Amino acid sequence: MIFFYSVRFVIKNLYFYDIIIYNRFHMQPIIVAVDFSNTSLHAVEYAICLANKMKSDIHLVWVDKIITQESVYPDTSNESRNEAKRRFDELTSQCKTKLLHGLSIDYKLKKGRIHREVDSLARSTSAELIVTGAHGISGFEEFWIGSNAYKIVTFTSTPVITVRHDFEIRNCIDRILVPIDGSNETIQKLLYSVKLAKLFDAEIYLLTTHNNHLKSIQRIADKYAQKAVTWLKKNDVKFVEDSLISSDLTKAVLNYAVDVQADLITIMTEQETPLNIHIGAQAQQLINQSPIPVLSITPIENFNLI
Fold first, then answer.
1. Domains of the chain
2. What does pTM read for this prediction?
3. Which of 88, 148, 206, 233 is most open to solvent, judged by the fewest CB atoms within 10 Å of its CB?
């Protein structure tokens, strides 16, 4: 009996030790915007892959649009919410079996504007990340990011990953492409890129981009690239350094991403107004056209990497 109790004691303490270790490395949750389209359900699958590596819980969020008194459409919000709740119950039940032990997945039903509600939930939970479908569609409109995804990316200060419905989910993140240009904000993407690289033991592809052959202009981007190299070495991150010159940087960067089999492209949103209603033209094109998930980072003021 003495041996039996001592074994139980050891096992119990090992169990509590495991809980302590888990909590210590348990990161903030991942928010996923869901409208039950194939694209958003694929985003949920992608978020599960991320969550298992990042040790993050997942909060799914569905937003019922506000019906104004002037609307010509009938108010079907109760039916919509009931249907959303039923589908969420089924979805979360399926997803729980794919999450590592100790991680959870739940859902929130909100009402209002989707970008505001997603951002509000991200802020209230101190979310690590927002994942949303990019809603890539064919024809002329393939060059326009889905309206809701666009609004989320431009409105929130939380990092956002947009993922297309046809992206093949593998080991999540093995190679991260980090394009460096001559903008003041470009270097800011290194902080989160390095964080992910360490979590996933990923390799960073540091790509200095030039759209002009003038050496005086190229030196600006080269200066930021050198700062990035110093930061990567300081943080002991595996990286490959490369550069390109093109008059169509979006196309060139995406071709490069495909060639090196990148799993993620990190960009700055480069908002052009303090009201967060615009996204930089090149950033928008990259999100629109990329077959690879894109991580969008919002610039902050008074940033200094080194």
1. 27-163 (3.40.50.620), 175-297 (3.40.50.620)
2. 0.83
3. 233
